[in-house]
Amino acid sequence: MRSLPTRRTTRRIAAVALAAATSVVVLAGPAFAHVTVNPGAAQQGGYTAVDFRVPNESDTASTVKLEVNLPLDHPLASVRTLPLPGWTATVEKAKLDKPIKVHGSDVNEAVSKITWTADAGTKIAPGQFQEFRVSLGPLPTDADSMAFKALQSYDNGDIVRWIDESKDGQPEPAHPAPVLKLTKAAAGDGHGVTATASPAADGHGHGDSADQAQASDGDKKSSDSTARVLGVVGIVVGVIGTAVGILGLRRKSNGSAS
Length: 258
Prior knowledge:
The protein is built from 3 helices and 12 strands; from the N terminus they run αββββββββββββαα. About 25% of the residues are buried. It is an alpha+beta fold. The strands form 3 sheets. The protein has a 5-stranded antiparallel sheet, with no helix packed on it. A 4-stranded antiparallel sheet has the order 1-3-8-5, with no helix packed on it. The model is unreliable at about 20-30 and about 190-225 (pLDDT under 50).
């Protein structure tokens, strides 16, 4: 008859199970803590509205400032912030070395940085996140993405620099810069600048087909992330369940023996 696990073996299995569960949860967490651009894609040559989503990573400090740097190698002629209660937005502009043409007119300067500063009594507390909305355009037609380097400041003086650029074929950096992917304009568009604002930005309850495709892509990414989380949770529950089952079997054996 096969012998049951000893008490030492049972404890060892339980310890390994708990350690595995803890490590899986810890490894799963950071993937959701980055500063990101949402939605993550927009149409080249058009206008769009995006949210810079800022999660608070600290357990003891709160976020009180966000600085977003706009790339001047692909300057944006039109940048507007959506008022956010409790936060003050400051827009800085820089003179361009070479003017850009927008709707037939020369544009000599562009927004280089947006800073949101929390008013007194406002903060992004531990366990919370905030979204900062901006309308942008016209987006460049000669680039497939735009990186927005960001600095996140906490009320304890810490600053997290989201400035590292991801490279194909390499692991994601610890603090990646928020990136907006740029897709090709639809065939037969007929003009170089087409509004691609989200429903919240265009004032109507619907957007164009490009917006719907971007929204669908964003929903798919969100669903994939949710599926990964549920998968991790399932693994954790399975590991813990196995350990608990072995412990219960051991206790039952001891009770029968007595």
